[in-house]
Structure formats: structure tokens, C-alpha cells
Amino acid sequence: MSVEAVITEYYSESEKKEIAKRYRKILRAAKELIKEGDAKMIRKALSVSMEAHKEMRRKSGEPYIYHPLEVALICVEEIGLGPTSIVCALLHDVVEDTAITLKEIEKDFSPKVAQIIDGLTKIGGSFEQTQSAQAENFRKMLLTLSTDVRVILIKLADRLHNMRTLDSMAKNSQLKISNETIYIYAPLAHRLGLYQIKSELEDLYLKY
């Protein structure tokens, strides 16, 4: 099925307009960073992600594709990452949540993109402990195991968007995700010099 057919079958007219609007916003934000060939690769990543997540909806009822689009925008606007990170942000959940494999990602994009997606998939699980010492060890493990700091930065963008949209989750999920955020992700943001993101994560933690 072509991407056009996927869009027609699985997304309403208003959703298609919203997807296009968010996609254009990413390209505008990254205008100074995009070189020849980058826009084509970003468009391809969007197409793959839309196809992979076509039947998925978030708890709010919105198409799942809105989430990777927003993560990609955070990567550009709030962290200052470039085209490779945009591609990875758009694809960050496809290996973990769909039938697409790392080999396919490597073939369709690049070994570097596959490596970053692999790193994101490996740290996709939740952290059950809340003791500060164990949390610190977990943060150190993340930083040590990650061969590319973009893995951590994209994961932070992912967590920030999840915290911004936590209203639609059940109360127990809100508490679990918020606690994980304050012990793991807010200190990581601080360590990486992302002080505005750290402050917002802390504020959202307090909200829930």
C-alpha cells in the first residue's frame, strides 16, 4: 500500500492537514541545518513512520504519528539537533512497537540511523526502582552504554512530549511515569546542560 493510500484510508482530512502542518514546522525549524538530500530522507522517515503506526492511536484518541512528529520538533527547536536526529525521532518507536526491523532501517536509511534507533529501543523499557542511588546508577549506565549522545537527547525529547501529554493517561500511569521522570530524566537533562527541559520536567512532575 502506498503512503498516499495509507493517508487516505487511516487519517481523516483534518488529521492529514495537522500532519502536514507539523511536518512543515519541523522543516522550517531545521531550515539552516538541512543540506542537499536531507529533506528527502526526512520525508521518507515520515512515510515509514506513518505506515508503521497507521492503526495506532494515543490514549487521547489522536493518531500516534503526532507523537514522533512532536518529538522531532523538540529535537530541533529545543535541543538544536539536526537532520539525522529528526529522522531518528520520526522512527524512534517503529522497531519497538511495529513489525519493522533494524535491518530494514539500516537498509532504507543508514547504519548510523539504525544504531541510534537500536539504542532508543534498548532504553525503551521502564525503570521500576525509585531509590536515588539506583537511579543514579541507571543514569550512569545510560550514558556509558550509549555510543551516540543523540540516543539520550532523543529519549529526553520523547519523555518531554510524553509528560506534556500525560493528562490522557490513567492516574497510576501518571504517577509511575512522573516518578521515573524525576529520578531519571530530569537529572539527565541537567547533566547534559538542558536546563529549560529539566525545569519543565520537574514542573510537570509536580503537576502529577
Q: What is the fold's blueprint, element by element?
A:
Layout: H1 3-10, H2 13-29, H3 38-52, H4 66-79, H5 83-91, H6 94-97, H7 102-108, H8 111-122, H9 132-145, H10 149-164, H11 171-191, H12 195-207
Helix pairs in contact: 2-4, 3-5, 4-5, 4-10, 5-8, 7-8, 8-10, 9-11, 10-11, 10-12, 11-12
Q: Helical region count?
A: 12
Largest sheet report: none
Structural class: mainly alpha
Residue-averaged pLDDT: 88
Q: How many beta-strand elements?
A: 0
Measured by DSSP, the beta-strand proportion falls in under 5%
The rough form would be described as globular
**Percent helix among the residues?**
over 70%
Unreliable residue stretches: none
Order of helices and strands: HHHHHHHHHHHH
How many angstroms separate the termini?
A: 41 Å
What features would you describe in this structure?
By secondary structure, the chain is mainly alpha-helical. It has 12 helices and no strands. The protein has helices spanning 3-10, 13-29, 38-52, 66-79, 83-91, 94-97, 102-108, 111-122, 132-145, 149-164, 171-191, 195-207. Helix 2 runs parallel beside helix 4 (66-79) and helix 10 packs parallel to helix 12 (195-207). The longest helix is centred in the last third of the chain and has 21 residues, at 171-191. It is globular, with a radius of gyration of 17 Å. The termini are far apart. The model has no long low-confidence stretch (mean pLDDT 88).
